[in-house]
Design goal:
Layout lengths: L1 H16 L9 H31 L8
Keywords: Membrane, Transmembrane, Transmembrane helix
Amino acid sequence: MRDWQEKLEIYFLSMSIVNYDEIGVPKKSTQWYYFMVTFSQIVGIIALIIIGVLFGQYRGGFGWG
């Protein structure tokens, strides 16, 4: 009984030590991920600014009545 518990403990300890670079994922893929997230956030902020300006100018602003 104790033998498989020790093996299980060693297994879980070894799983927590694993570095993700060791499984063959190149570091460049994470750099592209951060670039794309930043780029999409900037595009979203620009879109919000353009929509705000459009609604501020269209038919005299937000109070159309």
